UniProtKB/TrEMBL annotation:
Coarse class of the protein's main subcellular location: membrane
Membrane topology of this protein: Multi-pass membrane protein
SUPFAM superfamilies: MFS general substrate transporter (SSF103473)
Sections of the chain in a coiled coil: none
Name used for this protein in its record: Solute carrier organic anion transporter family member
Lineage: Eukaryota, Metazoa, Chordata, Craniata, Vertebrata
Transmembrane segments: 46-67, 97-120, 173-192, 212-233, 245-264
Pfam families for this protein: OATP (PF03137)
Organism: Nyctibius bracteatus (Rufous potoo)
Length: 279
């Protein structure tokens, strides 16, 4: 009767809430960070700064995979049981690594990394305004005061539906970019999700080694590509049309090279009753 009882645990709720809070905290960094750079940096330097931002963002998952590889070598109940009494190894299918340890390390690191953001100024001097004299600043202040007098005190708030319909969804370039990003990230996430499992099943690698290889081979080239793309855009001073052509060319070549994955692999394992008969 004990074996018939289904195991029930509500720990997944804590994981769900933790990821929800993590997403809320991480989301503003990219849009607001890019806007911050775009407002207070020289126009020709913005592509390099944005590339550095995305490069660091890609290095994070790489270190995450390496950390996951390290934690997977440790037993799940580390600190609570005598490790000398554990008779199985990480190569055993019953082995469960210390998956929870990465959340604690990542949470502490995120908290420490968030502290410097509290000391960033809300606004900086724009490069063009550095050489302006006091008279021009006074003139701008007077113009701003006059404009504020002419502007109504309480502007009418616009609904989200009106903003989406009138500004975002009607912008063909933005909508096309949104669709492209959706397709790219969907394929990228699927690639990172199933490639470790494929290496475990087809090549007999442990979870720790699979995560280590993924973090070491997949993400650094992407980070280098993002950084080089920013340098190329800065060097040739690409506008919107030039950047679009550049992105299309690189994406097309990436698609052609990705097709080679169809010719890489090995046959499925022979499993009695599934791929072959019991005889």
């Amino acid at each position: 009767t004990g074996c018939e009882k289904e195991p029930s645990s509500y720990m997944w709720i804590y994981i769900l809430l933790g990821n929800l809070l993590r997403g809320i905290g991480e989301t503003p960094i990219t849009p607001l960070g890019i806007s911050y750079l775009d407002d207070f940096a020289k126009e020709e330097d913005v592509p390099v700064y944005v590339a550095c931002l995305h490069t660091i963002a890609m290095l994070g998952p790489m270190f995450g995979f390496l950390l996951g590889s390290l934690c997977a070598k440790l037993y799940v109940d580390i600190g609570f049981v005598d490790l000398g009494s554990i008779t199985i190894t990480p190569q055993d299918s019953r082995w469960v690594g210390a998956w929870w340890l990465g959340f604690l390390i990542g949470g502490v690191a995120s908290f420490l990394a968030a502290i410097p953001f509290c000391f960033l100024p809300k606004s900086l001097k724009k490069p063009e305004e550095a050489n302006n004299d006091k008279a021009s600043h006074a003139l701008l202040e007077n113009m701003g005061a006059t404009r504020n007098q002419l502007t109504p005190a309480k502007p009418k708030l616009r609904k989200w539906s009106v903003i989406l319909k009138g500004k975002l969804l009607s912008n063909r370039m933005y909508f096309t970019f949104l669709c492209c990003s959706l397709l790219q990230f969907s394929s990228f996430i699927g690639f990172l999700t199933y490639k470790p499992k494929y290496m475990e099943q087809q090549y007999g690698q442990s979870t720790a080694k699979s995560n280590f290889l993924i973090g070491l081979t997949s993400l650094p080239p992407i980070s280098i590509g993002i950084f080089l793309g920013g340098l190329i855009m800065k060097k040739y001073k690409m506008g919107i049309i030039g950047a679009t052509k550049f992105a299309f060319g690189m994406s097309f070549f990436a698609y052609i090279i990705t097709l080679l994955h169809l010719f890489v692999g090995c046959e499925n394992h022979v499993v009695a009753g599934i791929t072959v008969s019991y005889e």
